[in-house]
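Students often ask why we bother encoding 3D structure as a string. The short answer is that it lets us treat folding as translation between two languages. Here is a chain of 944 residues written in the first language.
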Amino acid sequence: MTGTDDGTKAGTRGPARASGPRVPAPWVRTRLRVAPAAALALALLVALTAALAAAFPRAVDRYEDAGLRRTLDDASPRRTTVQFFAPRPDLELSLGEGENALREAALRKGYDAVLAAVDKPLVADRAQSSYGVRTSDPTDASDSFLARPSGLPPRVALVAQNALGAHSRPASGRLPRATDPVTATTSEVEAAVTTETARTLHIKVGSVIHVPGLERAPLAVRITGIVAPREPDGAYWMSTPLIREPSLIQLPSDGGTYWIGALLLAPDAGPVLLGTPGKPERYWQVAPDTSGPTAHDVSGLASAVAALESGPGLARIRERVDPLTDATTDLDEVLSSFTELRSGIAPLVAVAAFGAGTVAAVVVLMASGLAAERRRGELALVRARGGSLPGVLGRLLAETAVVAVPAGALGLGAALLAVPHARFSSAVAAALAVTVLACVALPVRAAFAHRAVRVHGGREDIASVRPSRRRTVAELTVLVLATAAVAALRRGGTDDAGSSGGSGDQLVALAPVLVGVIAALVLVRLYPFPLRRLAGPAGRLRGVVAPLSLARAGRTSASTALPLLALLTALTTAAFGGSVLAGVHTARDHAALLATGADGRIEATHALPTALPGRIRDTRGVREAVPVSVAYRAQARRGSGTAGETAALVGVEPGPYGQLSRELDLGGFPARTLRATGPDGSGGSSGGSRGKAVVPAIASPSLADRFGTAPFSVQLEDDSKVTVRIAAVRDVTPAVTDLDFLVVDREALTRRAARPTALLLTGGHLDGAALRRAAGGGVDVRLRAEVRTAYVHSPLQSGAERIYTAAVAAGAGYAVLALLLALVRAAPERSALLARLRTMGLTRAQGRRLLVLESLPQALLAAVGGALTGWAAIRLLAPGLDLTAIAVAGRPAPGGTARLRTDALSLLVPSLAVLVVATGVALAQAWWTGRRGSVRELRAGDGR
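And here it is in the second language, the structure alphabet:
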């Protein structure tokens, strides 16, 4: 028996097989080693998408929380504090029992009961909450040293509030004391006043103020100290502002004025109030902790406040404190204003979120489709050799999960670090959704492609494949959903959607996306027809590039619907979002323009100094200063016995004012419109005939409807009269906002009435500080830029705008990525085609033109379709969209409702960017293929 040196039998090939079971190569590890670049690209895509998806709800939470805190901080503590008060103790009690009820110990017990009734998420700020007893009806103080603006004696309230020493520091003297037990018959008590009260009422340390007694001698209140509040804007002082500073009251009858101030007694001196006619009452003031609540807690806060005002909380307080205890607060109105603002902004943000999310989801699906397409032969071979469909899908799910799950966790961690201090659950849910989509997309795609065992498939180019019945049913279903969403938005608007809640709101927010989806499906249906029509004529052209590129475009894979869907959705969302942002900015600019009437406005309640217009014109940045006189309470009437109509009479110089109105597009008119005519129709009147001539006027629509074109009389505030005839009607005019107006030539007015009371300024860069210095005191200076900035007050607005911009930018980025994926999918086949054509004489320039012309039909389809779809979506949805909330945040602003309008740049720039990217990628691919040469692309057996 012969053999070899290694012990094998002669005639055998290779080494002997080892005994034992075969160990197959691990599928997941093998695939990751074979295609590390593809795995890394998938990990980056999943990590980025998961990070953006997780960061979005946290960013929304952050700006909503900041908006809630701003709303609570802007509201005065007098509005946000929940105040409980009870009248003096029951008269059936003995005098001693009534006095004990007003001592600090009893009030502290009631305070503890009030705090125990406060339910979460409403939390009391114990440092700023307070309690005590006070006179609800201030009484006269007849001491002669007290301030008397018009001879009337001031009135004072006696207040015994807890923790006075902890919330103030003595400016002079000391804090009041109650060394002996104070009763209703005590003749003298000590008190302190704040520095503002002392300065205004002329009170000093040692002053004695006498307060009338009730069936007893006047109570002497000795001032032992003047205190300065440690936190003058805190709820301790501002829940009842009278204890911090006095208030000047004007009598409605004769116009006389008097001061009302507060004398701060020792906390245990409350029983003395029973001996005064000031109607003493106990009170407990609960200041809310504004640093803890979040926007997610608003509904709970509103419920807790309602329970304290008139619900179970108040019932518990009445049971433990006093049956007559009552509560009052404006905190519910403050929370309601925030909710209304958020409800107006949230639907607009949802539109951007759904758009960007849809494009991101499509890109993830495209990436999985690219992987499935490149592995089509491999998976078909596995199925043909006996691989079960569940087994193949399980391995695909495992190899995708090994990459996607860590990447999703990494993206979630990045989002949590980038956007801290927000809810965790929503971020986890968003990142988990992205990870699950990335994991299941490839197996599901492979399941549909390989559910039947086959090695070779038929032709699947877009010009030959006919849509199936299932696809037709799916497209009709999406069409119905899109139609329902658009109809709901046009009928109810985003305001109704934001307030109603539920799945209907999500459908409305998806409306722009669904419009893009329908357009994509329709364009994919229509795309083959022009290609088929052009195939014949293109074949008769000279040259090979044009007919070949058209043929290549027609043989594009039928799965082009997915990248087209991504591009159209992104372009529609970008156009819609850009138009929303442009509409918001335009609405603010217009509201600021109407509020000021020009780039700047200087106005006073009296006539302006004669030299002021010259000084203002010499100020840096001022191009022109147009003087006007405005009588806001002029009375227009026809006949002496008829009721007058209040209107603002504006006296102007027709030339400069008319030019200003035309430049600002605020009711422009030619100067001849205001040319004065006499009763006989002759030219203007002289100074001696003022009041007798009929003066042409420009009127607001309501005045024009009432008075018509017949002359009528207008009485000014100085009792002078002018007869006017309406010569033109304008909806707006620069000098007056939100008032009925009459604009006349001020030469027709009396000298006193014609003196300017306002200057309307124009200029590119007005300097507010310089204008205020030039204008001096006693005048109001308003700049259009400052008014516009004031409209962006709430973090809800600025945060929503940033989120909207980021969502549109993310959608655009994913759209570019979708375009790149679509081109990368066809890159190997194109490279092989160029290599083969070059062996047949195709030049490099012709190759570049071929690739560019081949990619242009789809890019042009997406660009034009995206622009048209964006325009159609805006036109369809604009009637139901109200941009007022995000534009001016509920602040009083002229100009009415801000509606969505088409923005040309938002339509054209994204579409042009698609064409530029597609052309650039085609040129880069042609250059790279030519640089590498043709040998590698023509290798035998390389599947292209």
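Translate back mentally: Confidence is low (pLDDT under 50) at residues 1-19, 497-503, 679-691, 940-944. Keep this in mind for the problem set.
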